[in-house]
Specification:
The protein is built from 10 helices and 2 strands. It has about 290 residues and is mostly helical. It has one domain. Helix 1 crosses helix 3, helix 3 packs antiparallel against helix 6 and helix 4 runs parallel beside helix 6. The chain is globular. It is a multi-pass membrane protein. Belongs to the CDS family. InterPro entries: PC_trans. It is found in: Cell membrane. It catalyses: a 1,2-diacyl-sn-glycero-3-phosphate + CTP + H(+) = a CDP-1,2-diacyl-sn-glycerol + diphosphate.
């Protein structure tokens, strides 16, 4: 067996295992089984998202090749400050999914940043543009990801929205890849991601909807309708991959990092999550008014 394949398989299993332990009650149960009462599940999830944020921001800064200037020294404090504001909401259960103009504006900034990357990439050659992009592209999605699960300090419960979001993203990527490999003929974005096809995209959407039907049927305690969530994930997950591919092409980088052996960096693995998390969060906001 190819050595690289073995490396990718092992690191992939470890990665999935960490996601499961940090997004379900299994992580806290495992640790508390060894050291009783040492941790609650929400802290494991918060630690996971914090890790993704810190490493993702570092990878993005390195990838965008900040020049000499104050922006390089301001970006990390700004990212951490914004994450701190959302962390206070997380631990005080302040994600009520009410219609807040500030949240809608923050979510819209992600769309503006993506539009700028594709339409006006030259704007990102300036340090100020790089600073703004890192804050919007990395910090805000992980901040909104804190608001996806529900948890309780009283009965040690932790809801599974994030776990199933990852499951749908993985299924969308897998189904799109397999469908595109066997049936793909029409390229989706040949200059950005040559292997992506419209047939693969349609296959990913269709089969992810099938999986989301079973999630909706067997996990009815989850927030929202997961047929809708499944469609949103399948529709937007490929965009996440295209965004990161365009970012790497703009700055002439192959991978965002190498922290996950055989898979690249955090941004390489979480490109779809970075887009899907705020989209699903926005759906949870609007779902109350539909």
């Amino acid at each position: 067996m190819d050595r690289n394949l073995i490396q990718r398989t092992i690191s992939g299993i470890v990665y999935v295992g960490i996601i499961i332990l940090c997004t379900t009650s299994m992580g806290a149960q495992l640790i508390n089984g060894i050291y009783p009462g040492i941790i609650q599940q929400q802290y494991l999830y918060f630690g996971l998202i914090t890790f993704f944020l810190i490493v993702g921001a570092w990878e993005c800064i390195k990838m965008m090749k900040f020049g000499n200037g104050y922006e390089k020294w301001v970006v990390y404090p700004l990212v951490i400050f914004i994450f701190y504001i959302f962390s206070k909401r997380y631990f005080h259960h302040d994600f009520f999914y009410d219609f807040r103009l500030s949240e809608i504006l923050a979510l819209s900034l992600i769309g503006i940043a993506i539009f700028t990357l594709f339409k006006y990439p030259n704007e990102l050659y300036y340090n100020s543009g790089k600073l703004i992009f890192v804050v919007i592209y990395v910090a805000l999605p992980f901040c909104f990801a804190l608001g996806l699960p529900k948890f309780s300090n009283f009965n040690d419960s932790f809801s599974l929205e994030v776990l199933f979001l990852f499951v749908l993203i993985w299924s969308s990527d897998t189904f799109a890849y397999l469908t595109g490999k066997f049936f793909g003929k029409h390229k989706m974005a040949p200059k950005i991601s040559p292997k992506k096809t419209w047939e693969g995209y349609i296959g990913g959407v269709t089969l992810t909807l099938v999986l989301s039907y079973f999630i909706e049927y067997y996990q009815q305690e989850l927030r929202g309708n997961w047929m809708v969530v499944g469609f949103l994930v399948a529709a937007f997950a490929p965009l996440g991959d295209l965004v990161e591919s365009q970012l790497k092409r703009t700055f002439g980088v192959k991978d965002s990092g190498n922290i996950i052996p055989g898979h690249g960096g955090v941004l390489d693995r979480l490109d779809s999550f970075i887009i899907c998390a705020p989209v699903v969060y926005l759906y949870f906001i609007l779902e109350k008014f539909i």
